[in-house]
Design a protein that fits this description.
single chain; 237 residues; 7 helices
Length: 237
């Protein structure tokens, strides 16, 4: 199967998650919480066991490419700065309900997640991008991550998310995939994009799992973090 078709299937899987994640709310509270925590555990294992080690290898390439542009010591760890920016963006989004009215908060939240989805769609197209390989494991991790995100977005924004938000997120995935198919970025740029994605995943998983009022399961989170970590180490990704 051509790699472009495989990546399109990944985008379709992500889109189906956005479409049907809200159906999980029909499950009982305990089962729903366990599923959400399992998804969060898989996503965080992907970031720490797979993505960050690969970014450490990519950082040297990025530093060499940008040495003439940013020669200062402050900018020697470019991919980690991008990861921090991804983390801070979604931290700010999470805190925006204290600062903005409901509609403004919805616009900021969906815009941020749409940008995130665009980057996901773009990043997976490059078969030489080590940060998304193997693609099957990446699809599983990000797909489950979307489940936890959609639960939060649906709770926070209700009908606005179901009628408008999720469709914008789906469109962003396909736009990113199309842009990646038409325009090729350098390995340096792809590494920076992947770092930003990683920072966003870390913040979102942390934000969804930490609040005590969430119906989540510590056991499921830890179990699936460990199991997915073992799987990643076993395949040597």
């Amino acid at each position: 199967m051509p790699y472009s078709v495989t990546t399109l299937l990944s985008v379709i899987v992500f889109s189906l998650v956005h479409l049907f994640a809200s159906k999980l709310q029909r499950l009982d509270k305990v089962t729903h919480g366990r599923f959400l925590s399992a998804g969060g555990g898989v996503a965080i294992a992907y970031v720490f066991i797979d993505l960050l080690p690969k970014l450490a290898k990519s950082d040297l390439i990025v530093r060499q490419a940008l040495a003439q542009v940013f020669p200062f010591a402050y900018f020697e760890r470019h991919v980690y700065i991008m990861a921090l920016l991804g983390f801070l963006l979604f931290f700010a989004v999470g805190q925006s309900h204290y600062l903005l009215k409901k509609k403004a908060q919805f616009c900021l939240t969906i815009s941020s997640y749409a940008f995130f989805n665009f980057l996901i769609g773009y990043a997976i197209v490059d078969k030489n991008n080590p940060e998304v390989q193997p693609l099957l494991l990446f699809t599983i991790a990000i797909g489950l991550h979307y489940f936890t995100n959609d639960f939060s977005l649906s709770e926070d924004h209700g009908k606005m998310y179901s009628k408008q938000g999720k469709w914008l997120l789906i469109a962003s995935l396909f736009l990113g995939w199309l842009a990646g198919s038409l325009f090729t970025l350098s390995g340096m740029a792809i590494a920076l994009v992947s770092a930003f994605i990683g920072g966003g995943v870390i913040m979102n998983v942390t934000r969804h799992e930490l609040p005590k009022e969430n119906p989540h399961s510590l056991g499921s989170f830890l179990l699936f973090s460990i199991l997915y970590s073992i799987l990643l180490l076993a395949v040597g990704s």
